Each structure stands twice: as C-alpha cells, then as structure tokens.
Amino acid sequence: MNNSQRINNSMVRTDVPHTEIVTVGTVNVDLVMGPQAPWPTPGTEVVLPKADLREGGGAGITALALKALDVQQRMIVNVGNDLFGHWLQQQYPVLVEDWVMDQVDTALTVGITHPDGERTFFSTPGHVAVFRPEDLMTQLSRIDLEGVIVLFVGTSLMPTIRPALKDIFSFVRTHGGRVALDTAWPTEGWTDQSREEVLSWLPDVDIALFNEAETKGILRKSSLSELADYQQILTRMPPNAFCVTKMGRQGARLVQRDTPFLEMAAGTHEVVDTIGAGDSFNAGFLAAIAREQAAERALEVAINTATMAISSAPRRYPSGKEVGLMNPFPKLTSRKKLVI
Q1: What is the rounded CA–CA span in Å between residue 148 and residue 173?
Q2: Beta strands at 100-102 and 50-56: parallel, antiparallel or unpaired
Q3: Are strands 332-333 and 16-17 parallel, antiparallel or unpaired?
Q4: 21/133 Cα distance (integer angstroms)
Q5: According to CATH, what is the number of the domain 18-38+49-317?
Q6: Termini Cα distance of the chain
Q7: CA angle 242, 244, 245 (to 5 degrees)
Q8: Against a cut of 0.85, is the pTM above it?
Q9: What is the DSSP string of 130-196?
C-alpha cells in the first residue's frame, strides 16, 4: 500500500530560471545541544548552555547553502506527516513542490557537541527509512534534467533507495543530467557489501564527493598520498569525472584520470560548529561546476563556503559574492512537465 503523497504548492510557475542543481537526499530536524564533557552518568540530568533547533539532513543543509549562493535549485526529499514534517515545509516554502509526504514520523537527530569540537549524534529512522524509489523517480521525471547536476547525498542512510540507485543514476544521465554522489558513512560500516555497492554505482557518477574517512573506507586504504591510491575509484567512473576528497582542516583534494593532484588548504579559521561542513562544501563546489568555473576555482568556492558556514554563530551561509562564485548564465526554460 502506498501511503505517500505529493506536497502541493499553490503557486503555478510557467516560466522560471533554468534549474542548475537538483538535490536528492534527506531532510530532517536537528536539535543541537552542548557542549558536554564528560559523558553524563546514566540516570542523571545535565543542563547544557546552548541548544539550537534547525533544519538538518544532507539535502536540507545543501539546499540552505545553495539558496544563500543564489543557485537555481530543486529538492527531492520525503518528510513525515507530523509536526516536524510541517515545520520543515515552512522552512523551504519554494522547494516543497518536489517533496513527498509519508504517513510516518519525521526523523529527528539530537546532536551533542563537545568542547574539542567533536559531536555525537542520536537519530531516529523516521521518514528516511520509507522513501520509495517509485516516488523519487516520479519527481525526477517531472524535471528537465538537460545540463542539470543531480546531487544524491546521504545515500548510505536511505535503505529503500539504495537498491534502485544504479537505475536512477542511469535515468539521470540518459536524460542529459550529471550525477554527483556523497554517500555519507554507512550505518553498517564499510563492509565488503557496502564497498561493492558504492563501487557498482561509480560508472554513472560524474562527481564523487567523499570525505577522507569515507574514501579510505571504500578503498581499504590507511592513507591517500598518490594518484595510484584512487585508481579503484577513477577507473570505474566516466573518463572526465571528478573525485573530490574533503579533508577537514587540511582542505580538499581533487583527482581525475591521468591528471596530477589538485590540492587546496582550508586556511586558518575559528570553528564554531562543524555540523554540515561537508554539505556546505558540496553546495559551493557544485554551484561553481554548474557555472563552468575551473576545477581549482570550484575548490576555492567550496572551501570558502564551508569555512564561512562552520565559523558562524548563529549559523549563516555565505552569498555567492562572498565566496567568489560567478553569476549564472542567462538561460530560461519552461517547466513543461510541472503540474501543481
């Protein structure tokens, strides 16, 4: 039985700016509290100095960063039909036309920050565990994908979507889109099965966006110091694909086939809150690539976007001008398949 439904938007748009990026993934509610150290004794109560209720999930954070960068975007996610699900819709009023509502609870994540900058998360599966591939494909088929980057973020956390991803990626590329992938860390860890699953997706992935720990996990490597270390990924990807490794305070590295490393340091900055650093990076990098900026410039935009986000309190995502993102090309298209 299908208990999913599209979320209707009362606005009908017939001529809108061409979509640059579509984000597919998770959006949920984050309750971030802290700092706390050491871990409390069971059965006791701790009063923490700070708490922040905000939008979370890989797609949720990416969409906020893209909005600040003034990128034309769409967002395909599902939410639960409850208080938190309706609250999330209110935070993304112009993006909900591609959302799906499921008759379940919306996922909630409680993040506890620690004085050393690290954090611990507790999450419920909620709506994320029931997002149906059929619903995702229905929403994708309504979008003109020609020239569009489609970012799939947090795929390792989407158990119902994972088995269908090879077909979904192929659909995007067949219809003129480019696939970007950020798997996130799988809940089961990097087992033989999860490694082979990710490697099987790579022939249809144009832009891989992994952090350093994820890249090491996929490749079974303890270090990544040479181009040869990436061959297991690069040889499976399309010839002109990018493989980007996010390295935290050390910056980022971009590799392509038969091309020397391109590395860029993050510089010095005071980190306030690292939650969403990778998603902010993804937004900056893909925005620059969508606007045909050079790879080196894209890394710079990405690092600047992430740095400014995690250095802000309260959280603020930078504008395109602040991070060196060029203006979009003037291009309009009709959404012929859009039916509200």
Answers
A1: 10
A2: unpaired
A3: antiparallel
A4: 20
A5: 3.40.1190.20
A6: 24
A7: 155
A8: yes
A9: G--HHHHHHHHTTS--TT-EEEEE-GGG-TTTGGGHHHHHHHHHHTT-EEEEE----TT-S-HHHHH
Structure token pair of residue 282? 């993804």
**Strand extents, DSSP E, 177-299:** 178-182, 207-211, 242-246, 252-255, 262-264
> Is the per-residue pLDDT at 331 higher than 60?
no
Whether 38 shows a pLDDT value over 70: the answer reads yes
Q: Quick one: tokens of 226?
A: 């040479």
In the chain, where the domains are located: 18-38+49-317
What SS3 class is residue 100?
strand
Identity of the amino acid at 122: F
Between CA 256 and CA 294 the distance in angstroms is 13
pLDDT of residue 333: 43
Q: In this structure, is the dihedral angle defined by the CA atoms of residues 140, 143, 144 and 147, taken in order, positive or negative?
A: negative
- The secondary structure of residue 258, as a DSSP letter, is T
Per-residue pLDDT tens for 16-35? 568 999 999 999 999 999 99
State the average pLDDT over residues 298-304.
Answer: 97
* Token digits of residue 215: 């890249």
The pLDDT assigned to 113 comes to 86
Which residue, chain included where needed, has tokens 């606005």?
11
Record the tokens describing residue 118, joined without a space. Answer: 């690290």
